[in-house]
C-alpha cells in the first residue's frame, strides 16, 4: 500500500486530485487499516466537495489510530463546517490533548467554542494559541473581540493594540 500512498500524495501535490483519490483507495484496498491513507483520502474528498464521505474516512482514521492528532483536527474542521459543533469540539479537544503544540487546533477549538456561545472556553483556547504563537495578530484580534463580548473592554484594548503592533496594516484591528 505504501507505493500507492506515496504516489497518491505526489499526485495530490501536483493537483491531480482524481488520480490521487484512486491511489489512496487502492492503498486502502490493500490495507483498510492504513490511518494516514484514510486521512489523506478524506482531505482530497473535502477538496472535491464530498464532505460526508470525507467524514467517514476521517472517522476511520481516528478509529484505527486514536492518537492521530491531525486526523482528529481534520475531522473536527469538517464537522464544524457541517454544523456539527459539539462533535467538532470533541475532536479538537482530542487533537490538543494528543498534541498540545498544535496552535491551529487550539485556535479552531476557540472558534468552535465561539459558535457554541462558550466565551470563557474560547478565551482559554485563544490564550493557549498565544502561548504557542505569541506573535499572531489574528489571534490577538479575535481574543480582543471575545474580551469585549465578556465585558472586559480594557483588556481587549491591550490585545487589539498588540495585533496592530505585530501587523500595523492588520485589517481586522482597524
Walk me through this protein's architecture.
By secondary structure, the chain is mostly helical. 78% of the residues lie in helices and 0% in strands. It has ten helices and no strands. Helix 6 runs antiparallel to helix 7. The radius of gyration is 19 Å and the shape is elongated. The model has no long low-confidence stretch (mean pLDDT 96).
Structure classification: mainly alpha
Radius of gyration: 19 Å
Number of strands: 0
The ordered string of helix (H) and strand (E) elements is HHHHHHHHHH
Largest sheet geometry: none
Q: Could you say which overall geometry the principal axes of the C-alpha atoms support? A: elongated
Number of helices: 10
What is the share of helical residues? over 70%
What's the overall average pLDDT, rounded? Answer: 96
| Amino- and carboxy-terminal Cα gap | 51 Å
What percentage of amino acids are in beta strands?
A: under 5%
Low-confidence stretches: none
List descriptors:
single chain, 174 residues, mainly alpha, 10 helices, 78% helix
TL;DR?
The chain has helices at residues 2-13, 17-30, 35-48, 51-64, 69-81, 85-98, 103-115, 119-132, 137-149, 153-166.
